[in-house]
Write a structure and sequence with these properties.
By secondary structure, the protein is an alpha/beta fold. The protein is built from four helices and twelve strands.
Length: about 160
């Protein structure tokens, strides 16, 4: 399984259920990487999307504790056990965990690749991604040249489980 996220220099990913910043090249990378694949997210992540709708051209799987939660064009699961049963239907390399913080933490140890866009800035935040630089089981396998969006600098990293 894969993880994909944009983080600031403190590994923050969001504030008040919104992304910290929207960088067009990062959004394009996310779209190109996940289109045609399976995306796994929590309910609040889904609700942060435009109109709270699932992402087009992907299999959307939403994890929520709410037994009555339903959403058109998404598979809703209510436990890790139910999620794992659903994920068995797909090739592991086709699955991308896309947030939020709780879902990333729950599935980190089951993932082998993390696509991380690192933004060289510190935002006010209330949600964080696990710091892979502090985890000996993860290493940077590839990185990009410095990218810029107005005055923001950022890099694309590919981490792999050792």
């Amino acid at each position: 399984m894969n993880l994909i996220a944009a983080v600031d220099e403190n590994w923050a990913i969001g504030n008040k259920n919104q992304l910290l910043v929207r960088i067009p090249a990062d959004q394009k990378f996310f779209r190109e990487t996940t289109t045609g694949k399976v995306v796994v997210m929590g309910r609040k992540t889904l609700e942060s999307f435009p109109n709270g709708l699932p992402l087009k051209n992907r299999t959307n799987i939403v994890l929520t504790h709410d037994p009555d939660y339903r959403v058109k064009d998404a598979v809703v699961v209510h436990s890790m056990e139910e999620l794992h049963e659903e994920l068995e239907k797909y090739a592991s390399e086709e699955i991308y965990v896309i947030g939020g913080e709780t879902v990333y933490r729950q599935l980190l140890d089951e993932c082998d690749v993390a696509h991380i866009t690192k933004i060289a800035f510190s935002y006010d935040a209330d949600a964080y991604f696990p710091n892979l630089d502090e985890r000996p089981e993860w290493r940077i396998a590839a990185d990009s040249e410095e990218q810029t969006y107005f005055d923001l600098e950022y890099f694309f990293y590919r981490y792999e489980r050792v």
